[in-house]
């Protein structure tokens, strides 16, 4: 072993130990490992920051933006309410998510399948009262095992098919992977449905502010517009859209105040007084196609609706000129270009119409306006803004655009028109251009620490290859496997590919391991097919770390996971994969 190889093993080993210790944040550990690698000379100066331009970083960052756009559009809420209104069991929800992601991943890029379903996982988590972490890691693992079923499901399958062509003159076909891959997918999905409790519930890093500001008694007002799907239906149907997070306090119909009975039939132009949390109110307003605050949009100087409209929560301070005034009396919209969307008053249920509520010190209000108009209004009228969080109430939705953008991106990659990073980057850009997600929220959707960790780790992990460490590991494997029976040798190749792929990317793992597996099979007089398949399965089955595959990385931030959480579920799943894959490979691809 050379000095450079020793240093590579030492740096990577120390880095993994610090990840597992979990005392310092993962991006700081990764950056420290990068600088240490540069300092000891195993990463050249001109290669130190190549990870920031790597395809994986682009794919993960773009997928986070695309997923945020899908979630923001409201199409996920609408689909769940229409097709799965009563699905509240955690295990049933998990089964639907894992099976869907697994099946989609067989035919489209697994990160695309995962990006589609992450917003659904958040909605299910809210509905069943659990953290999203319960769903996200099993979904990520499901996307990995789903990719094992077809040639196009994951990159290792494509690469190993090409290498078989070079070695034997015949490539693997599209569904040569299906018998073994489908068996692994079925067994893996069943395992995940029962073993998901091995992962502790973690609070999502992306929703911690929302959880800290928990205001659930906002009073708002909406009008049943012509074309609303709720016209002619009982009031109880509309309340269900809020999943228990909102109620109707009153119905105002042609000057008459009606009791909000569940069987009251909704009519066009009814004015509904609503109470609930901002998210629940938004779901009711958007899915029922109601008009909030008269559906008046703040305007720019040229009279057009600007793109930078936002809603903000603020507390009315003592001494504010708003105290004792109502929005109607102030003519907020006409005089200040500001909409009052909702009011919350601690310890009191407000039953007046929104515009006639006389404001008091301590009231929390949701105000909508342009980024230019809101700050001076807050300052002039003595309102103290709360910590900023996303308030979607009253925003314009474009439900079909994100789905069309995502479908176009995945279709383009499926037929090979453009590579995955270009397709997903274009999809993320389209989300911004078509205003699915406001420009101000783009960088909030991108998880900076995750991307920095990935970018720093790529040159560090590549030192295994550049120093010859991967060749050294290959030599050790050949020496060990020579004394093993056929099943043991096959299992060793599979386990080695699993162990190496967190540090090389999965395609590089195949490039390193496939020639070793083929030459080893030839030396023992075996056909190479089962060993090549074992390499592809091992390279596509990285369940032990968040860094070996972009799907694992994608859920780390939203799930609030720690580095040490992955092997809790991933190690037993890896053992299951080995126990099922080895006999299946020997049966489907006989060694002699």
Automatic annotation (TrEMBL):
It is found in: Membrane. InterPro entries: Cit_transptr-like_dom, DASS-Related_Transporters, RCK_C, RCK_C_sf. Gene3D superfamilies: Regulator of K+ conductance, C-terminal domain. CDD domains: SLC13_permease (cd01115). One of its GO terms (molecular function) is monoatomic cation transmembrane transporter activity. The chain crosses the membrane at residues 6-21, 28-45, 94-122, 134-154, 174-196, 403-436, 472-497, 503-524, 569-589. Coiled coil: none annotated. Residues 207-290, 297-384 form the RCK C-terminal domain. Its main location: membrane. It comes from the Bacteria. It is a multi-pass membrane protein. Keywords: Membrane, Repeat, Transmembrane, Transmembrane helix, Transport. One of its GO terms (biological process) is potassium ion transport. This is SLC13 family permease. It comes from Sinorhizobium terangae.
């Amino acid at each position: 072993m050379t000095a450079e190889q020793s240093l590579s093993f030492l740096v990577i080993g120390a880095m993994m130990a610090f990840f597992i210790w979990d005392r310092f944040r993962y991006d700081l550990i990764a950056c420290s490992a990068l600088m240490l690698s540069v300092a000891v000379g195993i990463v050249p100066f001109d290669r130190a920051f190549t990870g920031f331009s790597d395809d994986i970083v682009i794919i993960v960052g773009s997928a986070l933006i695309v997923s945020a756009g899908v979630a923001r559009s409201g199409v996920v809420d609408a689909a769940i309410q229409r097709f799965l209104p009563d699905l509240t069991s955690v295990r049933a929800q998990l089964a639907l998510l894992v099976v869907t992601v697994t099946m989609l991943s067989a035919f489209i890029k697994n990160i695309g399948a995962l990006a589609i379903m992450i917003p659904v996982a958040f909605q299910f988590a809210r509905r069943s009262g659990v953290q999203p972490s319960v769903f996200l890691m099993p979904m990520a693992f499901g996307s990995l095992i789903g990719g094992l079923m077809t040639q196009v499901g994951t990159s290792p399958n494509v690469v190993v098919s090409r290498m078989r062509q070079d070695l034997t003159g015949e490539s693997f076909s599209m569904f040569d992977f299906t018998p073994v891959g489908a068996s692994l997918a079925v067994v893996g999905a069943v395992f995940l449905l029962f073993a998901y409790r091995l992962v502790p519930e973690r609070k999502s890093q992306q929703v911690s502010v929302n959880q800290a500001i928990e205001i659930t008694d906002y009073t708002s007002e909406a009008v049943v517009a012509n074309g609303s799907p709720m016209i002619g239906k009982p009031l109880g149907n509309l309340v269900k859209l809020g999943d228990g997070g909102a109620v109707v306090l009153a119905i105002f119909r042609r000057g008459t105040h009606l009791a909000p009975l569940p069987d009251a039939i909704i009519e066009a132009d009814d004015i509904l007084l609503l109470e609930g949390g901002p998210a629940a109110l938004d779901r009711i307003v958007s899915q029922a196609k109601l008009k909030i605050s008269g559906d008046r949009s703040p305007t720019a100087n040229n009279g057009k609706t600007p793109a930078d409209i936002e809603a903000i929560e603020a507390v009315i301070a003592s001494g504010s000129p708003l105290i004792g005034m109502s929005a109607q009396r102030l003519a907020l919209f006409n005089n200040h270009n500001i909409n009052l969307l909702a009011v919350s008053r601690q310890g009191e249920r407000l039953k007046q119409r929104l515009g006639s509520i006389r404001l008091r010190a301590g009231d929390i209000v949701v105000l909508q306006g342009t980024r230019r108009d809101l700050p001076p209004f807050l300052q002039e009228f003595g309102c103290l803004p709360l910590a900023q969080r996303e308030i979607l109430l009253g925003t314009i939705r474009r439900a079909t655009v994100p789905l069309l953008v995502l479908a176009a991106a995945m279709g383009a990659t499926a037929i090979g028109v453009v590579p995955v990073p270009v397709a997903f980057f274009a999809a993320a850009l389209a989300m911004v251009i078509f205003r699915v997600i406001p420009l101000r929220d783009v960088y909030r959707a991108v998880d900076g620490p995750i991307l920095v960790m990935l970018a720093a780790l790529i040159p560090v992990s590549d030192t295994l290859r550049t120093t010859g460490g991967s060749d050294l590991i290959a030599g050790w494997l050949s020496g060990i496997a020579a004394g093993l029976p056929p099943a043991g040798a096959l299992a060793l190749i599979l386990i080695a590919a699993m162990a190496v792929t967190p540090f090389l990317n999965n395609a590089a793992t195949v490039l390193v391991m496939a020639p070793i597996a083929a030459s080893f099979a030839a030396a023992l007089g075996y056909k190479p097919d089962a060993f090549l398949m074992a390499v592809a399965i091992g390279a596509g089955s990285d369940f032990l770390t968040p860094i070996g595959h972009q799907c694992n990385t994608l859920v780390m931030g939203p799930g609030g996971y720690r580095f040490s959480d992955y092997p809790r579920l991933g190690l037993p799943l890896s053992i299951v994969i080995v126990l099922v894959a080895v006999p299946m490979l020997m049966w489907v691809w006989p060694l002699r």
